[in-house]
């Protein structure tokens, strides 16, 4: 199924900014769930490498909630490439992927355990719950 990208570059940039912003719907879903599991956390901690979305400092656990498009979820249908300025976007996406990788590596080296929740995963509450329990289960 081929669709023309209906967005102009300017609109696309604005959408990108939104996609990248804090307190997205997937993030709220994850936060609500771990809160109900009894965990308390810090948001967008500026003193932690990569300013992770959710930091459970006491447990040295970090949860990133990644937008599939922006962070390029492998094999996910939401990673459709914009039809214009393809080279620009490819570079931009590559930067994101590389930065994510570097951040995760640095965090692991400092003793953090990391979970990445993809936007598309956050929409299935049952699976999300399972994934979060697997990651945090031994702590509660
Ligand atoms: Zn995805």
Share of residues in helices: 40-55%
Radius of gyration: 16 Å
Element order: H for helix, E for strand = HHEEEHHEH
Task: Report the structural category.
Answer: alpha+beta
The major β-sheet equals: 4 strands, mixed
Percent range for β-strand residues = 5-15%
Present as ligands are: zinc ion
Q: Give the overall shape, derived from the CA principal axes.
A: globular
Distance between the termini: 45 Å
Overall pLDDT confidence = 88
Structural write-up:
The protein has 5 helices and 4 strands. Helix 2 (25-36) crosses helix 5 (125-136). The longest helix has 24 residues, at 86-109. The termini are far apart. Helices cover 46% and strands 12% of the residues. Strands 1-2-3-4 form a 4-stranded mixed β-sheet, sandwiched between helices. The chain has helices at 9-20, 25-36, 68-71, 86-109, 125-136; strands at 42-43, 54-56, 61-66, 113-118. The mean pLDDT is 88. It is globular, with a radius of gyration of 16 Å. 19% of the residues are buried. The chain has 140 residues and is α+β, with helices and mostly antiparallel strands. The structure holds zinc ion. Zinc ion is lined by residues 68, 73, 76, 78, 118-120.
């Amino acid at each position: 199924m081929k669709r023309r990208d209906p967005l102009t570059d300017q609109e696309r940039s604005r959408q990108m900014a939104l996609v990248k912003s804090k307190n997205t719907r997937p993030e709220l879903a994850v936060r609500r769930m771990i809160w109900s599991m009894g965990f308390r956390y810090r948001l967008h901690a500026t003193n932690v490498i990569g300013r992770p979305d959710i930091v459970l400092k006491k447990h040295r656990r970090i949860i990133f909630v990644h937008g599939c498009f922006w962070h390029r979820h492998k094999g996910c249908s939401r990673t459709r490439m914009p039809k214009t300025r393809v080279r620009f976007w490819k570079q931009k996406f590559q930067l994101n992927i590389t930065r994510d990788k570097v951040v995760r590596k640095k965090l692991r080296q400092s003793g953090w355990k990391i979970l990445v929740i993809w936007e598309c995963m956050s929409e299935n509450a049952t699976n999300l719950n399972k994934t979060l329990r697997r990651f945090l289960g031994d702590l509660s």
